[in-house]
Amino acid sequence: MLQVKNLTITHRKDLRMILRDFTWALGPGDKAVVIGEEGNGKSTFLKLLFNPELVADYVEYSGEILRDRMKMGYLYQELSPAHKAMSVAQFFQESPLFYDCDWGELARIGARLGLPVELFYSEQPVASLSGGEAVKMQLARILMEQPDVLLLDEPSNDLDIETLEWLENFINTCKMPVLFVSHDETLIERTANVILHFEQLRRKTLPRATVARIPYREYVDRRLANMDHQSQVAKKEREEYARQQERFMRIQQKVEHQQATISRQNPHGGQLLKKKMHAVKAMERRFDRGFETMTEFPDTEDAIALKWPVGVDFPNGKKVLDTCISARRMSDAMGRDFPSDIALSVTGPEKVCIIGKNGVGKTTFLRMIAGELQNQGGIKAAYMPQNYEESLDLLATPVDFLARVGDKADISRVRTFLGSLKYTPEEMSHPAGALSGGQKAKLFFAKMILDGCNVLVLDEPTRNFSPLSGPVIRQLLADYPGAIISVSHDRKYICEVCDKIYRLDEGGLHIQDEK
Questions:
Q1: Which of 273, 328, 429, 482 is 20 to 30 A removed from 206 (C-alpha atoms)?
Q2: Residue pLDDT, tens place only, 37-75
Q3: Terminus-to-terminus CA distance in the chain, angstroms?
Q4: Global pTM?
């Protein structure tokens, strides 16, 4: 059993606590997911459990991590540059246990993961693998080493829908305990039986960790119901307190008035009023004690709140895009042969999603569409790339990214807006490269809103938002009055936001669903 006892994790740079006195155990049969907003230490927690040296340069910890001689398999959120530079065969050969596995054992591992046994000896560059192939390759090496526990850091990132469904089955049928981080709500709903919720309350000064041994949807429903009940109780108590205060003030003012007007020739009356004032002061102290013991409003790390400005609607039926990207142009951009032209026509205010297998060319196609729309008159288009570095200077601060003219009033407006998105003053001054994926994603949404764009071109727009912020982002996009052209593997986004779904394959673009 993997256990942590009184675990406290603190950032070295700003001394911010991620966890405080956290005690928990991962037992047999557990499929535990860590959820929370970006920057709350989910990946740090997994790395610390696996190997404290992975986080030693930016956090320190106290407490105990009891592994009980368990061997842990860890799937990294992203392969290192050194691993990407290897061939697939070199990646496997780096494990000392590779040569202990015979052909039959490798074939059994490959069959379980849907990989041909030849891949273990392939000279194909790791960097050329699709997201799904890279995850399966890592899992194959982990299983080769026969671990007792699996730690999976964002295994669902960059996976196509077919591979996501495979991953769900893998986690559910895995005989080992699994601890994972994911932003994919559907995956979490279908696999997790233990929820670890990491929060940063009071402007990220107070960490809170909640453990619930129930399915995710039940956890969310209970949490919302408890918060609603607590809010109602807190509101009623304050309303009653206000009424009591009003009565108290009337009594106090009456006694004070009587004291001010009583004749000095009436000492007996003066004594009575003095006793009354003592009683009034005692009543005031009781009210103060009552206020201190009132039910608090729920102290939660709220999901972000965004709203579209007026004027970003796109006229119904007006042409947004009518394009045909040639097979030759796609082939040149992808560096490999793409056999078919790709045609797409979009009218306002349609919300279009393009799906397809990893590596088929969705991102390349979307990038070309974004280029066309951003140069098209009569349209104000925003592009959110899958790789944020395409449009975001990682050395610039969030304020630099959002400010239009850079004068005092503009900067003040931007800082106020960032504050409403739960950015701390320190985060507003950090370089964008130091921000989490979710915080970077929020910057793109903030820019879309501040710039008043009426067409959005979005590559995996929900991939870096927590399961609790995900519903807010999906509702924001569902309410958007302009046109959306997107690529996504997020099944909830596809279902709740998009009204036209196309599948891209080597035969071109085909309508798959039209609501």
A1: 429
A2: 877 889 999 999 999 999 999 999 999 999 888 899 999
A3: 48
A4: 0.81
